[in-house]
Amino acid sequence: MKSENGQSLVEFALVLPLLVMLLFGIVDFGRALHAYLTIDHAGREAARAASIGKDNAAVKVIAKNQGTSIGLKEDWVNVSPASRTPGTDISITITYPFNFITPVLGPLVKSIDLKNKTVMRVE
Q: For the whole prediction, is pTM greater than 0.90?
């Protein structure tokens, strides 16, 4: 019978890249979920501010301040319609470009846009 001293090392070398890809995929999923929940919260806070009469610039600053953990920028926040009257709906749309860190998936898919739309009635 031949020696099997290096067999487990070869098997580990074959399985290790798959385990690393799985780990990075789990981390990317967690990052994407965190980013989506953050823009959801920022959208709700911005919509609430817009519904009580704040102007568009202030609404965008509120959204940006609520999204500091992901580096949310005011340019990614869209407020519509620009003018508000009581009883109408105000819509806040946030588009966040998400970049993957997974070694193989990251270079193939540069980024995806996470979008969230929040609608509230103006008071």
A: no
